Amino acid sequence: MSIYQMSEVVSVASQIRPTDVEAIARAGFATIVCNRPDGEEFGQPAASEVAAQCETQGVAFHHLPVHHGGLSTDVVDAFRDVVAGSKGPVLAYCHSGQRSSILWQVSGAP
Asked: Which residue ranges in the chain fall short of pLDDT 70?
């Protein structure tokens, strides 16, 4: 997992695993956003697995999948709302972090 800080509020990462959530919480992230559709790749953890670990760590979790076909306005708007409502820094992830980075840029979120 590689984390890249996009702003004071949002960072993006490559695929995370449920076992990464504790370290992510210790790093100060209040919210994790999964931008990867479930079942995109064999062996990828389901969003629900990461969400379950987030719950044990007190980290908010949102699943806003971005498919390779492009961004929907619903996902862009939802991402903006998640960032605005987060109680602290947000970590968004997908396979490589690229879709999460594009989503952050398009959303205009801080």
From this structure: none
